[in-house]
């Protein structure tokens, strides 16, 4: 979870795809990595461009406004040494401190939260949230009277538990949606029985988002000590949710397209107490590896080395886009 300062002598830029490296400024590799994934999520920038933010007070504290500016600068052609510095200081003013080591998934969710809080155009803010919104239904069935209680909720990132052994993304997703038996001290209150009863709890999907973000929970806290799991977790470049975990879909689930294509991977290197973040992003059918200010071409085979176990660099956050890669590129070209 921790950052490391990696000095770079120059900023790589590929003008044909708009890739820009970001210098490591006050242990900023975590935010640098997230900015690269957000830049590759062209839907966010396209929505922010619609936002008329003129006349806002305290714009140096407004995270979505600074995000809008830095994403535009990252796509621009003018050379800038640190186009993200104002964004970093803005996060600092919102308690995501500079010179402090952060967890990438927590910062990602904080940024999405700031967007909801600080954009004055609430319908547009909701559109951005809906890009990531995983709508769910939790069902609790009493094992005595079979009464079922249902409650709607949503997540913006799917947290997947991993075992200290070989894992697959498909297996982790299946485990997430497995029913759990709740008994003993975990018994739940049944409205029909009017007392606590053994229950069965399950989660089902009401709808899937355009951008499906999944966190591989590699960090474990035991007796106040945090350690990292470098065990192997394989993940596909494409998959169909309705085929991988069909049991996860509600009966009234109506979306036709459940196919997803990987376009960004947040990678953690090192241990829980001393590490570094980088990212792989796919832009116009080409994979790139962004390591602070250094960006270079990569391959799907190189992305696969982040499965874990042997290479020390392990995938931590996976971002998939619904639909085919070609469809995503066509829409990206139209938005630009």
TrEMBL record:
CDD domains in alphabetical order: Peptidase_C19 (cd02257)
Gene Ontology annotations of biological process type: protein deubiquitination
Record keywords, A-Z: Hydrolase
Superkingdom of origin organism: Eukaryota
Keyword Hydrolase found: yes
Domain USP: 20-323
One Gene Ontology molecular-function label: cysteine-type deubiquitinase activity
Gene3D superfamilies for this protein: Cysteine proteinases (3.90.70.10)
InterPro entries in alphabetical order: Papain-like_cys_pep_sf, Peptidase_C19, Peptidase_C19_UCH, USP, USP_CS
Gene Ontology CC: one annotated term: nucleus
Matching PANTHER family: UBIQUITIN CARBOXYL-TERMINAL HYDROLASE, UBL CARBOXYL-TERMINAL HYDROLASE 18-RELATED
Protein name: Ubl carboxyl-terminal hydrolase 18 isoform X2
Protein species of origin: Parambassis ranga (Indian glassy fish)
Classification of source organism: Eukaryota, Metazoa, Chordata, Craniata, Vertebrata
